[in-house]
Specification:
globular; 2 domains; Arc Repressor Mutant, subunit A; mainly alpha; 7 helices; single chain
Length: 146
């Protein structure tokens, strides 16, 4: 289990995250890339939901959405007639960046597992899917408890 904790720690280091972001899109900051990755994985959301999901204040979400909008990566659409609620979604350019971000993760894994046998890769793929599913269930359990 120590190896899994080390992996999570390394991948969550701010320096590592910033370096990955700079590799994918040097002109787009980590906050905007985090927003784009989230919207790419989970679809359009209200700013309040983005704040909860990304652990950000309403003000921080607004700033990041504005920066993403300035890059042409997101759109804001009114949810109701009075226009007070908005839905943040990816633009076509945002869809492209989201795909690039996810692809960079695949590239990183290919590089890190270079030299692994087919059997090791098959085992890792099977077990990592299992771990990801268990992690999602555990996260939901912890979130629901609070």
């Amino acid at each position: 289990m120590a190896a899994t904790s080390a992996l999570m720690y390394i991948w969550s280091l701010p320096q590592f995250q910033r370096a990955l972001a700079a590799h994918v899109a040097p002109d787009v900051d980590l906050g905007v890339q985090t927003l784009v990755r989230h919207l790419g994985m989970f679809g359009a959301q209200l700013p309040s939901h983005l704040g909860v999901a990304l652990g950000m204040t309403r003000s921080n979400v607004s700033k990041i959405v504005r920066r993403a909008e300035a890059h042409g990566l997101v759109t804001r659409e009114p949810v109701d007639r009075d226009g007070r609620s908005i839905l943040v979604d990816l633009s076509p350019a945002g869809d492209v960046l989201a795909a690039q971000i996810l692809h960079s993760g695949d590239e990183m894994m290919r590089e890190m597992t270079r030299g692994w046998s087919r059997e090791e890769l098959r085992d890792w793929t099977r077990l990592s899917h299992r771990l990801a599913n268990a992690a999602a269930e555990y996260a939901q359990k912890i979130i629901n408890a609070h």
